Amino acid sequence: MSVHVGFYVVGLDLSLTAPGVAGIGPAGVVVDTIRIPGKLTDVPRIDHIAEQLQVWCAGADLVVMEGPSYGNQGSGRQSGHHERAGLWWIVKRQVVHAGLPLAIVPPATLKRFATGRGTADKTAMTLAAARRFPGVEFGDDNQVDACWLAAAGAQRLGFPVVALPKPQVSVLDDGIVWPATLDTLEAIR
Fold it and tell me: What is the pTM (predicted TM-score) of this model?
C-alpha cells in the first residue's frame, strides 16, 4: 500500500489587476499576488497572468478556482467583466489541458466556508484568514480569497489546514463539483 505523504493544492482568485494565488502543501501556506509589469493591457496582460499562474499550478494535486461573481457585473461596481471572463476561461482551459484536477467554488460557498456567512464582505474574509492562518501575511484580499480556496481544496483532500466548525466544512459538499480523481488521491492517502 502506498502512502501519499505530500500534497499540493493551489487556490486561484482571478483578477485583471492583482490576481491572488495560494499554494498549500506539507511545508505550509504561501500566498502571493501576480504582478503586472509596466502597463500591459489587453491580450499581453491576460497572457502574462495565465503564464504566471501556470507556473504556480505545475504539479498540483488540485487547483481550486473561484467561480464567476455574476452579481458584480453592473457598471460602476466592476468594469472589465468581459475581460475577466476571458481570463477565467483561459486559465480554466490551461489547467484542464495540463491534466490537473480542477474544482470551481461559487463565491457564496467560499464565504460560508471561511466565515459561516455566504454574504461575508472582504473585511470579514480577511479577519477570518488572519485568525485561522497565523503567521501568514496577506498583502491583499485576492490573496485571502486564494488562500481560502486552497484551504477548501486541502480540506476536501483530507488535509485540513485550519480547524473550522462542522457546518462551515459541510458547505464543501454544496454546489462544488469535485474532480473524480480526488477519490483516487483520497484512497492512496
Answer: 0.90
